[in-house]
Design goal:
Layout (H helix, E strand, L loop, with lengths): L1 H27 L2 E7 L11 E6 L12 H10 L3 E5 L10 H11 L5 E4 L2 H4 L4 H12 L2 E2 L3 E7 L2 E7 L13 H11 L7 E4 L6 H6 L4 E4 L8 E2 L3 E2 L1 E2 L3 E2 L6 E5 L2 E5 L17 E7 L1
Parallel strand pairs: 1-16, 2-3, 3-4, 4-5, 7-8, 8-9, 9-15
Antiparallel strand pairs: 2-16, 6-7, 10-11, 12-13, 14-15
Helix pairs in contact: 3-5
């Protein structure tokens, strides 16, 4: 009996140590997650076009000046880099971390940025952040779109400002985003939309957006086996859109687990990630 009790304690200690090490590793290393998106609407010139997605950095650093992130993206040789909001954290703002990162990223590929809720919460500091991004050569999309051209063929890249800039009442966010998209007068070209908010997928679907790149949900923060994310901002418990690829009709949405943390400082079974999307 004593041997059995001792063995049980050893097993518990081993399991506890393994979970602890797994959690530490899952909070201090970054994964590269790759997706492919296919559509008959993608021009042939954009076949194998690669988009790196950076979301929800929240001032996080992996290596000095985020050299691990930079190196990971450089190796993938993306055609463009999409930054989908919450580059900084409003509760512990460090504009320098964001500035150093984007200066390195624009040397890898053209960078396009949309705001997240934490940028909306920065108040006057947001103007300083945006100026640093513009000075570094980042294209900031404020409810606007740009054409991307390759071999005389085009697609469009659109970006939505986070609705918290206008009103933090989440009950009216869908109608706000719907109005924004209607006013953008998007063309019939294949459309990639950068929008921080995955919970508004129905809006993007109704607008016939081809591909949405998003974040905000932090992967559900704590990921449970066979269940998924536990909790996400503006979705509550067991969020529908926590991470990964979602497809309905002709619309695809890819939601990044993000890189940093905010209110909850620890992730479980939910590594930070850089997303790589390839059009085929």
């Amino acid at each position: 009996m004593l041997l059995t009790k001792k063995s049980g304690k050893i097993i518990i200690l081993i399991i506890t140590a393994a979970v602890l090490l797994w959690t530490i590793w899952g909070n201090t290393s970054v994964a590269l997650t790759c997706y492919t998106v296919s559509s008959s609407r993608i021009p042939s010139a954009f076949s194998h076009y690669k988009i790196a997605v950076i979301s929800d950095l929240h001032n996080a650093e992996f290596g000095e000046d985020n050299r691990h992130l930079i190196s990971m993206i450089e190796k993938e040789k993306p055609d463009i880099i999409a930054i989908t909001g919450d580059l900084v954290d409003s509760g512990n703002t460090d504009l320098e971390v964001a500035e150093k990162l984007v200066k390195k990223l624009v040397a890898v590929a053209p960078c396009y940025y949309v705001t997240g809720n934490h940028e909306a919460w920065l108040s006057r500091q947001y103007n300083k952040l945006e100026q640093k991004l513009l000075d570094a050569g980042v294209t900031v999309l404020h409810d606007t779109s740009v054409k991307l051209t390759k071999d005389n063929q085009t697609i469009q890249l659109a970006g939505l400002d986070d609705p918290d800039f206008t009103d933090r009442d989440s009950s009216i966010h869908e109608s706000m985003l719907q109005t924004k998209l209607e006013r953008m007068n998007l063309t019939d070209d294949y459309c990639i939309l950068l929008s921080h908010r995955p919970e508004d997928f129905n809006v993007y679907l109704a607008a016939d957006i081809d591909l949405v790149l998003s974040g905000h949900a932090h992967g559900g923060q704590f990921r449970l086996p066979f269940i998924g994310g536990l909790i996400a901002p503006d979705q509550g418990f067991f969020p529908k859109y926590d991470c990964g690829k979602y497809s309905e009709k002709n619309t695809d949405m890819i939601v990044s687990r993000g890189i940093g943390n905010s209110i909850i400082p620890v992730r479980f079974n939910n590594r930070p990630e850089v997303v790589m999307v390839e059009l085929i």
